[in-house]
Amino acid sequence: MKATYAHTMLFASTMQLATLISSVAAQSVKAFNDSLSNHNNFIVANGYGPERWGCSFVKTQVHQSGEGTTITIGKDSPTKPYSCGELIYRQANMSYGTYSIEMIASKTVGQVTSFFLIANGDTEIDVELTGLDTKLGWMNVWHNNQQNPVSVELPFDVSTDWHSYSFDWYKDHIVWWVDGDMVLNRSDIATTPPDRVSYKLAINSWAQVQPEVNIDWAGKFNYPPDGEVPKAHFRNMKYIPRVYDSKGNIVSGGDDSKSNGANLGGNNKKKSNAEISKSPTGALAIAGIGMVAVAFAFTILF
To answer: Which residue has the higher pLDDT, 25 or 223?
Structure first.
């Protein structure tokens, strides 16, 4: 009986420790808040762009300032009619959580202003604004090489002032928010789990010269004849991780972001073990407890 009890204790402690380590590993993508006033945390795309677009990425079209980032459309692409810009956050392997940004979209027909999470060739979650109708927002999910866009009517012109756009990515659904108000909740489109593919977070602005889908959502881009440079503005990109335990329950990053997707501040709840483990000392402390439990089990056994 003693040996059986000790083995049971040892197995339980080992499993607890494995779950803990998994939870700590899930925190490897940290929360962040980047003003976009510089590009130290980003890769500036250069020299390529999707075949179907009317532009390729050229780094000179991405501009930083104290106000954030501006992406312009130019005419200096070596391969396409126009040049455009994209910023990719350097941290790969993004995961479930709340993603938010503030944007002023371009008012030029055919220019798209985008904030998105992408696993190339697999899944993509988008917020897209276009100059064709500046009182619409397009919330989109790509999966299995098919996009599923939904247009949302907005009570303002997206090209005249700063507004907050965010999405909450859960295991089984996605919620989009504009200025803190929920505008769309979808559970009908699957997304590939982040432990199977690598997701990256990005912003871009690009020019459409031929239709992508069977709806005229962006219009055809023509460079403004008055010489005004088409531009889109971005600032305050934010992320809060959402952590699940081994049973699929949310242990952090759930309640607050679900009640208000634009509020990326802290909360007054008691911290869970997963939240404590965000800090190296917290992670080591909890891991130490697990190791003590394992050592105790060995003592009982022997």
So the answer is: 223
Tokens of residue 180, six digits:
């803190």
- Amino acid letter, 192: T
For residue 267, the model assigns a pLDDT of 29
Q: Residue ranges of the alpha helices (H) in the chain?
A: 2-26, 255-259, 273-276, 280-301
Could you tell me which of 255, 203, 159 has the C-alpha nearest to residue 34? 203
For residue 71, the tally of other CB atoms under 10 A from its CB is 25
Mean pLDDT of 170-192: 96
Could you tell me which residues come within 8 angstroms of residue 203 by beta carbon, excluding any fewer than 6 positions away? 69, 71, 86, 87, 101, 114, 115, 116, 234, 237
Mean pLDDT of 232-252: 94
pLDDT tens-digit map of 192-226: 999 999 999 999 999 998 766 556 789 999 999 98
- 232: buried, middle or exposed (CB in 10 Å: 19+, 13-18, 0-12)? buried
Rg (CA), the chain: 23
**Number of helical (H) and strand (E) elements in the chain, helices listed first:** 4, 19
Burial class (CB in 10 A: 0-12, 13-18, 19+), 113: buried
Please spell the DSSP secondary structure of 199-233, one letter per residue: -EEEEEEEE-SS-SSSS-SS------TT-PPPEEE
Average pLDDT of the residues of the chain: 80
Closest CA to 39 of 91, 101, 87: 87
Cα dihedral 72, 78, 80, 86 in deg (nearest 10): -40
Q: Are 71 and 85 in contact (CB under 8 A)?
A: yes
- Quick check: helix, strand or coil at residue 99? strand
Q: Alpha-carbon distance 14 to 118, whole Å?
A: 35
Please report, rounded to a whole number, the percentage of residues in the chain having pLDDT higher than 90.
Answer: 63
